[in-house]
Automatic annotation (TrEMBL), chain A:
UniProt domain PTS EIIA type-2: residue ranges: 7-153
Keyword Endoplasmic reticulum in annotation: no
PROSITE patterns on file: PTS_EIIA_TYPE_2 (PS51094)
A Pfam entry, by short name: PTS_EIIA_2
Name of the featured protein: PTS sugar transporter subunit IIA
Superkingdom: Bacteria
Sorted UniProt keywords: Sugar transport, Transport
Taxonomic source organism: Mesorhizobium loti R88b
UniProtKB/TrEMBL annotation, chain B:
InterPro entries for the chain: PTS_EIIB-like_sf, PTS_EIIB_2, PTS_EIIB_2/3
GO terms classed as biological process: phosphoenolpyruvate-dependent sugar phosphotransferase system
Keyword Transferase: yes
Protein name as annotated: PTS galactitol transporter subunit IIB
Domain of life: Bacteria
Species assigned in the record: Mesorhizobium loti R88b
Organism placement in taxonomy: Bacteria, Pseudomonadati, Pseudomonadota, Alphaproteobacteria, Hyphomicrobiales
């Protein structure tokens, strides 16, 4: 079951079983990893948190632990990258299509994107993972990087 | 088809989810024998661009002032209800 997402995820930007209790907390944890690894500017975390309040990124998957794909404008990005966090207990994100609807989210894919033409494959890998219930179940129980690699190839 | 229709793909940044939706719709319509011109924009830019396109596929809410048809594109990200939305898009392209 390979989506190729593992090639795009920096292993150092994967956080499993986070204790974060709000969407801002998990965004800042993951954004901190991307910043430390040189993917984004120091302005990125604030920009993502601010954007999430008005243009939310929760995706309703009709499961108890939905997915969110926070991101922001390209000027905060130095090079493309993806961070991933799984949550011990779901946190609330608003629905991308209906900001009044609150969704419990168990998986966060934080996207640093600055060139849509070059990053189509990365986006498609994220979408393929989101649309694969077995992959999400596998990620939820993943405790080590090897567990994640086994799911995402 | 008399002419190529233009679909405007919109999302919050005009770069992330609209790109994923654009590619998914392009591939699916190719399978149905349909081609179209594609544009991408931020949701906030849609009111200024709507006049020059046939319809809009968006993952985020679009201003009510836009009179062109708006089709919800979230199904291409979640996979839920995708076939129904593809039928809607095909119907708009065949109009």
């Amino acid at each position: 079951m390979s989506h190729g997402l593992m090639q795009l995820l920096d292993p150092e930007a994967i956080v499993l079983g986070s204790d974060a209790s709000t969407n801002e907390e998990i965004i800042r944890i993951l954004a901190g990893r991307l910043e430390a690894l040189g993917y984004v500017k120091s302005s990125y975390a604030d920009a993502v948190v601010r954007r999430e309040m008005t243009i939310p990124t929760g995706l309703p998957l009709e499961r108890a632990d939905n997915v969110a794909v926070p991101h922001t404008d390209p000027e905060h990005v130095l090079k493309p990258g993806i961070a991933m966090g799984t949550l011990k207990r779901p946190v609330i994100f608003a629905n991308m299509e209906d900001p009044d609807e609150k969704l419990p989210v168990g998986f966060v894919f934080l996207l640093a994107i600055n060139d849509k033409d070059k990053q189509i494959e990365a986006l498609q890998s994220v979408m393929a993972t989101i649309q694969n219930p077995e992959a999400l179940d596998g990620l939820r129980s993943a405790r080590t990087l090897d567990d994640v690699r086994a799911v995402l190839g | 088809m008399s002419r190529h229709k233009t679909i405007l793909f919109a999302c919050g940044t005009g770069i992330a989810t609209s790109t994923a939706v654009n590619v998914a719709v392009t591939e699916a319509m190719k399978k149905r024998g349909l081609t179209f011109n594609a544009q991408q924009a931020k949701a906030t830019e849609v009111p200024g661009l709507a006049d020059s396109v046939d319809f809009i596929v968006s993952t985020t809410p679009i201003s009510a002032s836009v009179t062109k048809p708006v089709i919800k594109g979230l199904a291409f990200l979640t996979g839920i209800g995708k076939d129904k939305v593809l039928d809607e898009i095909e119907a708009q392209l065949r109009k």
